[in-house]
Known about the structure:
Elements: H1 2-10, H2 12-41, H3 43-64, H4 69-78, H5 83-120, H6 127-152, H7 156-191, H8 193-205, H9 215-218, H10 225-259, H11 262-296, H12 300-327, H13 329-336, H14 347-370, H15 374-399, H16 402-422, H17 424-428
Amino acid sequence: MRSxxxxxxxxxxxxxxxxxxxxxxxxxxxxxxxxxxxADYAGPAGMAVMGNLRNFTQGIxxxxxxxxxxxxxxxxxxxxxxxxxxxxxxxxxxxLAILSSLLLAVGIYIAAPWLDDYLISLDVSFINVFRLFxxxxxxxxxxxxxxxxxxxYEVFKKYITLQIIISVFVFxxxxxxxxxxxxxxxxxxxxxxxxxxxxxxxxMLKKTLGKxxxxxxxxxxxxNTQIAGKLFSYSMMALVSxxxxxxxxxxxxxxxxxxxxxxxxxxxxxxxxxxxxYLLFATSLISMYxxxxxSKDESALNFRxxxxxxxxxxxxxxxxxxVAVYVLRDLIIxxxxxxxxxxxxPLFKWQLVGDFIKIVTTVLAFQFIARNxxxxxxxxxxxxxxxxxxxxxxxxxxxxxxxxxxxxxGTYIIYLATLIFLLKKELFSSSS
Length: 432
């Protein structure tokens, strides 16, 4: 027993995973209740509309921060003992990101009627939802600055505590809005999140990093051409994903709505919600643990050791969890949704297999981010989104909405093969 406790204390990844696990349990519990509320008050059609809005807001938020998030984590990790140098990075990033968010806010505010017509397309007007989202963008920028510092400094307990508190407040606010205003409240619940994130994040960060460094000392207008160049290479990687992933998701969802109806699109959105709960455990853990590790040491040996350690420690746990999700799929549908979502059952096997491969590939792909390798990142992303779109368009007419999750599996098998080819030197070279 003592040796087991000692092993746990020495294993940073297990400690981070255990803290993260608490967050995921809370997140799943909140998500389960929220999914049921949305199912009862908005239905499958409303869930499909929410999916379109969520994809849009996620893509625009990445543009607002100019895709600097992973770059800020990297430089917070590499310069955490050099406060003045870190300030140079953050102030340059702030000058660019706040300008970007303000320009986007103006554009979205003006384009709100068109966005409402294309993304929502219901009898009721939701123009003000988009306008409120536009106002939230600068607040999202501040929040990303906060979380990048917590991750870069590896203050994992604070970071996870922050996410838990935010989840609880968002749940309370969204529940109130949905209960009183149905689908309208659900859509407003999505766009108010950045305001809550920023407010809670500022309170949490206040005493975390000491007197030498604070969020106010990092927010300011400063320009460094060399630093801007480094940040923009991260920006290009993130913005490619911000454009491609939400756009493809919206195009595929609209095609499902056209061929199979809003309810079928709602079933796909439902399985994506289930997927997001357990994927959050893996993706947040990769972001918190793997990215700082790869950023501090860019050697091939460190890359192999880091991914091997992650696979050996975390993948068995995730595999057992996914098996449990499949066995309990009927119970999950009945608890999280209602009888209108019974058609989700055949989607589980494909979604779970695809998600397991996705976790494996995400760990590998973070090498491109850690090394600021835009070329290989772009190649892999283009192959991935192209596969998903064309496989979805081919399989949807033949298999209905189940064809979309079949395309999900096919996409990540091809993506895994692509990453192994692109990373063959780091993976198989005997050099360090």
